Amino acid sequence: MRHLAVLGPGLLGGSVALAARSFGGVDKVGLWARRSEVIPELTASNVADIVSNEIGEVVTNADLVVIATPVGALQGVMESALPFLSEGAVITDVCSVKGAVVEAADGVLSASTRNDVAFVGAHPMAGSELTGFANARADLFQGAACAITPGNSATAEAEKKIEDFWRSLGCRLSRMNPADHDKLVAKVSHLPHLVASALVQTVMSAESNAVELAGAGFRDTTRIAAGSPSMWTEILAENRDAVSSILDEHIRELGEVLVKLKENDDEWILGFLSEAKDNRAIFSAPAGQGD
Questions:
Q1: Residues 6+ apart with CB under 8 A from 287
Q2: Distance in angstroms (rounded) separating the CA atoms of residues 235 and 185
Q3: Among 54, 83, 137, 261, which residue's beta carbon has the most beta carbons within 10 A?
Q4: CA-wise closest residue to 121 among 158, 92, 82, 79
């Protein structure tokens, strides 16, 4: 790969640029930022060979384009970049919802005359409650799971290029269709964020001085509730059906726990906690990955 273009300089986009320079074997990295006021900081960081708020300047001659914007901005950014892309360029992304993203990307390409450009969706599970380029780091993707969700324009060659790229940054890959992806992340990412947020609200709203006794358990359990509210509102809206379904299931689970507590069924509670402990032991994701 000769030239990588990253569109969006936040936590994930910045980390992609840093990781590509460290591990990805690319010759040239371009970084696009929408806001001109951040350009001097990004340029001074030496995160990329080209830093600009002019999208054409960043993507011209790029072999691979990584769109690292919020879900709602992807279509517009892709439309802006498309006229400048070289023949054979491949586009991927980092969005945590894939159904809406793949549909939007397929729509952009099908409405254009660029049948020489391919889109292969991706979701590296390497987020954090921290945001912005200041928190980007080259090792963010080491050991992280990454879902590959090809679009209609994807060719075998394009898919291999994307798989090789994410693997070079340290990711563990899984291929799946967008609908299956969205159901799975509703369980392991979107539901936990809602549960953490609800726990914060329960503890902080009902009895504000309770937090004075909170320790590492409460801190760790609620860490992800510190994520960007605007970003998470968009994610939950784009995956509304899958999140609603798993949230209903979780509420039923908690409801059963409540009933057993009121019935003084300690044996059932012991079994519930034991099973949960055993299931937790099965989970072995690397520390710090998988938000």
A1: none
A2: 11
A3: 137
A4: 92
CATH number assigned to the domain with residue range 3-176, chosen from the 4 options 3.40.50.1820, 2.60.410.10, 3.40.50.720, 3.40.50.360: 3.40.50.720
Which CATH architecture fits 181-282? Orthogonal Bundle (1.10)
pLDDT given at position 288: 44
Task: Residue 102: name the closest of 82, 125, 74 by CA.
Answer: 74
| CA geometry: angle 19, 23, 27, nearest 5 deg | 90
Mean pLDDT of the region 63-87: 94
Distance CA 113, CA 117 (A): 10
132 has pLDDT over 80: yes
Q: Structural domain boundaries of the chain? A: 3-176, 181-282
* CB of 140 closer than 8 Å to CB of 125: no
